[in-house]
Amino acid sequence: MIRVLLVDDDPLVRSGLRLMLSGADDIEVVAEAADGGEVPALVDEHAPDLVLMDIRMPGVDGLEATERLRARPGAPAVVMLTTFKDDEQVLGALRAGAAGFLLKHTPPAEIVAAVRRVKAGEPVLSPAVTEQLIARVTQGDGATPGRPETNEARVRLDRLGDREREVAVAVGQGRTNAEIAAELYMSVATVKAHVSHILTKLEHTNRVQIALTVHYAGLV
What is the pLDDT of residues 189-204, one digit of tens each? Predict the structure, then answer.
């Protein structure tokens, strides 16, 4: 079972999500919270695999709650679920360690599928959010010499070996482990090992952050 914690200040939204997710035979909603400040205690008590987190909440918002949670060892994955898709919110959520960003009008079946994909270690972004991020990079917010983000990304990537860098670029291109294995002529287990080493060396917590670093460095 995939154990899920719901975090949203609207009880009707939480009720709808619980009803939607409970219809899947491999997903269990183990707890709910109305504010990001409640998350640490509920994670300790219920040990969820994944947190579905709203961004805008009156107390501790989703970005701060995600950053606090992902800084803890063994933290569950976080998927942001919101009605907003502001550039800074999306990038803030991904930098904070979120493994996905879904809009609340996403069809129920896609939200269920996203929960399963994140549990399997794959990042998830709503198509509208993906298009927005691509547009931002192509409009000049990607690699620019002298920009702090570009310089930091290149310094981080210098820590990688040649093979690790190839895997990191493939992650930045949105490839799955199986696709990377076929493209680089290695086993899926080897790809997973490389990804694990890359996360450690780059001081990242998920594949989305690897992809952002690769983009900022201008390798994709």
Answer: 999 999 989 989 998 8
Question: Up-side HSE of residue 156: CA atoms within 13 Å toward CB?
Answer: 26
- Cβ(51)–Cβ(5) under 8 Å? yes
pLDDT tens for 98-149 read 888 888 888 888 889 889 988 887 777 766 665 566 555 555 554 454 455 7
Q: Rounded to whole angstroms, how far apart are CA atoms 211 and 204?
A: 10
* Contact residues for 167 (Cβ-Cβ < 8 A; gap 6+): 180, 184, 191, 194, 195, 198
- The number of beta carbons lying within 10 Å of the beta carbon of residue 145 is 8
Number of H helices, E strands in the chain: 11, 6
Q: Rounded to 5 degrees, what are φ and ψ at 128?
A: -65, -35
- Taking the C-alpha atoms of residue 65 and residue 80, their distance in angstroms, rounded to an integer, is 11
Residue 212 has pLDDT above 60, yes or no: yes
Q: How far is CA 98 from CA 22, 62, 64, 155, in A?
A: 23, 10, 11, 23
Q: Which of 128, 95, 105 is nearest to 206 (CA)?
A: 95
**Residues in a beta bridge with 53:** 7, 80
Whether the model clears a pTM of 0.90, i.e. scores above it, the answer is no
Query: Could you tell me which residues come within 8 angstroms of residue 56 by beta carbon, excluding any fewer than 6 positions away?
Result: 9, 62, 82, 84
